[in-house]
Write a structure and sequence with these properties.
Blueprint: H1 8-14, H2 18-22, E1 23-26, E2 29-32, H3 40-53, H4 55-64, H5 87-108, E3 117-121, H6 125-137, E4 145-149, H7 154-163, E5 169-174, H8 181-196, E6 206-210, H9 213-219, E7 226-228, H10 245-251, H11 253-272, H12 279-293, E8 298-304, H13 311-323, E9 341-346, H14 355-360, E10 367-372, H15 381-400, E11 417-422, H16 427-448, H17 459-471, H18 478-487
Parallel strand pairs: 3-4, 3-5, 5-6, 6-7, 8-9, 8-10, 10-11
Antiparallel strand pairs: 1-2, 2-11
Helix pairs in contact: 3-12, 6-10, 6-13, 10-11, 11-16, 12-16, 13-16
Length: 489
């Protein structure tokens, strides 16, 4: 691959079939890579690289439930939650879903009291997925008001308390291991809040979602209110499991089922579609080109729909925790860069904040626009028209630029962007979109030869925090010790 590709705009002239090649309709979405530097030669080269890296075999092992998470010696079976994994794992996931559905029906029937508010306590993947889905799809659902709390900062919990009535609140504790300090501390404070308000049996208002049922039982949750899921489902891939309980409560079980169906449709596309028309493969080829050949250290995602405002932070964990690695599957140092930094925001707000740098700054960052054709409101259609026009205009302006004799008003152009245009934002389409991002992350990992399913990098700081709680400043560097002293800890 050349380090000086042809300008994007000129590629339309060189290839009259460019739109047909680089635009794919799949699962209620249009994926458009035509405003990137991808061309047939670059795609062919990327596919050859992925074939050499063993994508076909790696994908087969993922879908068959083999131990692709090699550092932890286990499978990565989020696909089984959608019914597309190994048969035994599909059946196990179906049993867990049946138990989950029964819990939803019990809450709806009032068997756990007069519930009006759901307080979901988790962190990382136990919070980001449910929060994204409830915020995107649950604004008009009307079933329950859901608050998701992840931060151990008491201000986050205090804000949730202001929104909830303790006498009508259900606490969902979501923790894969049921040892996460932040989640357990927040849950304990919720129980205290209920007790102080005079709730007769606070523990009777608790549902635990975990891959360690015994730990939840030991904590004090009744066995009948523990929803298990498999330890082979990673945290940032877990919203399809019982971790999605607040989604099923807020939207209804039918909507949760549609979410799973949409993801399963994208699973089948990824598994069965040739690489030249496979959206996860094409996305990864573009990703690796901009990171490796163009030296891009970031990738920006802008949701041109207020309902998707939490998509960028969700993708930050999915992509950077999965592929922010420095060693290969066999423990060797990577020869080049791994994942770029994922960042972004919501249009049109970001146009008046960060787009100055994107259009005229010295840092090249590929951009991804995510928009929805059908509006999420019934206000004057001018609102949605302006939103979409701005989205499409930004992509065009980044690519074409505009020359000027005034250097301050000169736009260099040739800045790449991808557009993902959803027909509508509903559970099925959003499920497919999230599954697309999961598979894209996996293909990037195969290209790099790394394990996207462990996350040891998040552990060191947490271990040191525990040591400080236990031992104080003993053995700490002078700067950190001084900060602890200044804070009076």
């Amino acid at each position: 691959m050349t380090l000086n590709p042809l300008p994007i705009a000129s590629l339309f002239t060189h290839d009259p079939d460019r739109l047909a090649t680089l635009r794919i309709d799949q699962s209620g979405m249009l994926f458009d890579w035509s405003k990137t530097h991808l061309d047939p030669a670059r795609i062919a080269s990327g596919i050859a690289q992925l074939n050499k890296a063993g994508l076909t075999d790696a994908r087969a092992r993922l879908f068959s439930g083999e131990a692709v998470n090699v550092t932890e010696g286990r499978a990565a079976e989020h696909i089984a939650e959608r019914g597309e994994g190994a048969p035994d794992s599909n059946m196990r996931a179906a049993r867990c879903h049946a138990r989950m559905q029964a819990m939803v029906e019990a809450v709806d029937a009032g068997l756990l009291g007069d519930i009006r508010h759901i307080l979901h306590v988790g962190i990382g993947g136990s919070a980001l997925g449910p929060q994204l889905l409830v915020d995107a799809l649950g604004r008009d659902a009307g079933h329950y008001e859901v608050a998701v709390v992840s931060n151990v900062d008491g201000s986050a919990l205090a804000e949730a308390f202001r929104r909830c009535d303790p006498h009508h609140t259900l606490l969902i504790m979501a923790s894969k291991t049921f040892t996460t300090i932040e989640t357990l501390l927040n849950a304990h404070s919720v129980i205290e809040w209920m007790e102080e308000a005079g709730v007769e049996d606070p523990y009777g208002r608790v549902i635990a979602v975990t891959a360690a049922p015994q730990a939840a039982l030991d904590w004090g949750v009744d066995e009948s209110r523990i929803l298990p899921f498999s330890e082979t489902v990673g945290g940032r891939y877990s919203l399809w499991s019982a971790i999605g309980l607040p989604v099923a409560l807020a939207l209804g079980w039918e909507a949760f089922g549609a979410l799973l169906d949409g993801a399963a449709e994208m699973d089948r596309h990824f598994r069965d579609t040739p690489s030249t028309r496979n959206v996860a493969v094409l996305a990864a080829i573009a990703d690796r080109f901009y990171v490796e050949d163009m030296g891009c250290q970031t990738r920006a995602v802008f949701a041109y729909d207020e309902r998707l405002r939490l998509l960028p932070p969700y993708l930050q964990q999915l992509e950077m925790e999965s592929n922010g690695k420095r060693v290969t599957l066999d423990g060797q140092s990577l020869a080049g860069p791994s994942a770029p930094i994922t960042w972004g925001g919501v249009g049109t707000d970001c146009q008046h904040a960060v787009f100055q740098l994107l259009h005229q700054g010295m840092i090249l960052s590929p951009i991804e626009f995510v928009a929805v054709i059908e509006p999420g409101h019934d206000l004057d259609e001018a609102h949605h028209r302006q939103l979409l026009v701005n989205c499409f205009a930004q992509g065009s302006a980044l690519m074409t630029g505009r020359a000027s004799n005034d250097p301050a008003r000169d736009y260099p152009g040739d800045r790449p962007s991808v557009t993902i245009l959803l027909d509508r934002l509903d559970p099925r389409t959003l499920g497919a979109l999230i599954a697309f991002y999961e598979h894209r992350t996996f293909v990037n990992a195969v290209w790099l030869g790394i394990n996207p399913f462990d996350q040891f990098g998040v552990e060191l700081g947490k271990q040191m925090a525990k040591a400080i709680e236990r031992d104080g400043t003993a053995g700490l560097d002078p700067s950190t010790a001084a900060l602890i002293e200044r804070a009076g800890l």
